[in-house]
């Protein structure tokens, strides 16, 4: 007999769950709750997915800001509603800070709760960092089951280690593309929201250095939303090597972006986990990342991509020039090794098996 699970997803974390949710449905009777405003793109995306895979879906939302104390009463009403659903597991892929956690704790049986943990270390640019640090400590002390997406973040867990699981993020594939990387030059891609910790400044500076040091052709695509592009624009000394799309882009152009590139650039100065990295692996695209702990678990220098020193423009420029000067041999080798690594370590089959094991353990502990 199938067990049942109520899966709660925040709209801004949809891409974490969409690659696996229809597979989870094969093992469990699934009720899907999505936090998204009615009529929003997030809500429509979730609804389209649910219809395609015949998943029972319900939407929750609130008119109050997440930091407004009044939002607690909305959460309380919603968790009270969930408590009346007869399920074996409540899986929360949502940041429960600062008020949702108290509604979960009050209305739902702790033994049935699984919390997906996106942070172990507190993000550098997060609002209310000090308060969030105390929240994480409080959360880890709860008798829930916890799932982290990387060993580096799970290392910060301070609760019962028997309740802590690590399951990698599933790879994201947004569809196929007919495009291929160019034959006559090396194409680098930066993709994502442009903020300080993504180090787009370093990418621009390094690319300009490489332009001065090699005669071989290359281009750097920078694609993503930025609140203020002007400071970055001033750093561009050679506009001909940059292809800029400084705006939010729809999901349907992601396949072409990744399929038409040779390398994804991620010389971040802080990372917990990375959506673009999963996309790159989904399209067998080698990556160039910084040597942060958050990357070391997934990026093996010379296997899945190349690694530079965090915050070091010269190191990034050196790696970029190296892959350009040794193209296409280095690119072909990395693609082959990356594909083998993915198959053995982070394929969908491997990740789904870990979810199934975790959920079976949660159910068995209720007997």
What is this structure's SSE topology?
Elements lengths: L2 E8 L3 H4 L3 H4 L3 E8 L5 H13 L2 E5 L10 H13 L5 E5 L6 H8 L5 E5 L11 H12 L4 E4 L2 H4 L9 E3 L19 E6 L8 H14 L4 E6 L6 H4 L8 E4 L8 H6 L3 E4 L8 H8 L4 E4 L2 H4 L8 E4 L4 H13 L3 H17 L2 H17 L3
Parallel strand pairs: 1-2, 1-4, 2-3, 4-5, 5-6, 6-7, 8-9, 8-11, 9-10, 11-12, 12-13
Helix pairs in contact: 4-5, 8-13
Q: What does this protein look like?
A:
The protein is α/β, with parallel strands linked by helices and 367 residues long. The chain has 15 helices and 13 strands. The protein has helices spanning 14-17, 21-24, 41-53, 71-83, 100-107, 129-140, 151-154, 200-213, 230-233, 254-259, 275-282, 293-296, 313-325, 329-345, 348-364; strands at residues 3-10, 28-35, 56-60, 89-93, 113-117, 145-148, 164-166, 186-191, 218-223, 242-245, 263-266, 287-290, 305-308. The strands form two sheets. It has a seven-stranded parallel sheet with strand order 3-2-1-4-5-6-7. It has a six-stranded parallel sheet with strand order 10-9-8-11-12-13, with helices on both faces. Helix 6 links the parallel strand 5 (113-117) and strand 6 (145-148). The protein is globular. The relative contact order is 0.11.
Write the element-wise H/E pattern from the N-terminal end onward: EHHEHEHEHEHEHEEHEHEHEHEHEHHH
Major pleated sheet: 7 strands, parallel
Which range best describes the helical content: under 10%, 10-25%, 25-40%, 40-55%, 55-70% or over 70%? 25-40%
Q: Strand order, biggest sheet?
A: 3-2-1-4-5-6-7
- What global shape is seen? globular
What is the typical, i.e. mean, pLDDT? 94
């Amino acid at each position: 007999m199938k067990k049942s699970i109520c899966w709660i997803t925040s709209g801004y974390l949809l891409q974490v769950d969409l690659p696996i949710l229809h597979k989870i449905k094969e093992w469990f009777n699934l009720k899907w709750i999505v936090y998204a405003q009615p009529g929003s793109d997030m809500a429509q995306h979730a609804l389209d997915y649910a219809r395609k895979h015949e998943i029972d879906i319900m939407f929750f939302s609130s008119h109050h800001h997440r930091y407004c104390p009044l939002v607690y009463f909305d959460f309380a009403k919603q968790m009270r509603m969930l408590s009346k659903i007869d399920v074996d597991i409540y899986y929360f892929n949502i940041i429960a800070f600062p008020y949702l956690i108290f509604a979960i704790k009050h209305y739902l049986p702790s033994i049935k709760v699984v919390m997906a943990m996106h942070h172990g270390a507190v993000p550098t640019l997060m609002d209310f960092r000090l308060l969030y640090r105390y929240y994480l400590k409080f959360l880890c002390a709860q008798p829930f089951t916890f799932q982290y997406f990387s060993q580096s973040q799970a290392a910060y867990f301070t609760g019962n280690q028997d309740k802590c699981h690590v399951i990698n993020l599933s790879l994201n594939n947004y569809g196929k593309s007919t495009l291929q990387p160019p034959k006559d030059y090396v194409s680098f891609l930066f993709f994502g929201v442009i903020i300080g910790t993504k180090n787009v400044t370093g990418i621009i500076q390094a690319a300009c250095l490489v332009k001065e040091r090699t005669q071989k052709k290359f281009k750097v695509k920078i694609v993503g939303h930025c609140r203020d592009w002007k400071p970055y624009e001033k750093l561009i000394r050679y506009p001909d090597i940059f292809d800029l799309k400084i705006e939010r882009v729809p999901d349907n152009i992601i396949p072409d972006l990744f399929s038409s590139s040779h390398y994804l650039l991620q010389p971040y100065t802080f990372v917990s986990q990375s959506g673009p990295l999963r996309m790159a692996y989904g399209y067998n695209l080698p990556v160039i990342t910084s040597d942060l702990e958050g990357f070391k678990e997934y990026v093996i220098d010379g296997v899945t991509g190349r690694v530079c020193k965090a915050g070091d423009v010269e190191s990034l420029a050196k790696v970029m020039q190296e892959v350009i000067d040794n193209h296409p041999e280095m690119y072909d080798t990395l693609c082959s090794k990356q594909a083998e690594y993915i198959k053995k370590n982070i394929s969908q089959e491997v990740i789904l098996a870990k979810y199934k094991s975790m959920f079976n353990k949660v159910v068995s502990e209720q007997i």
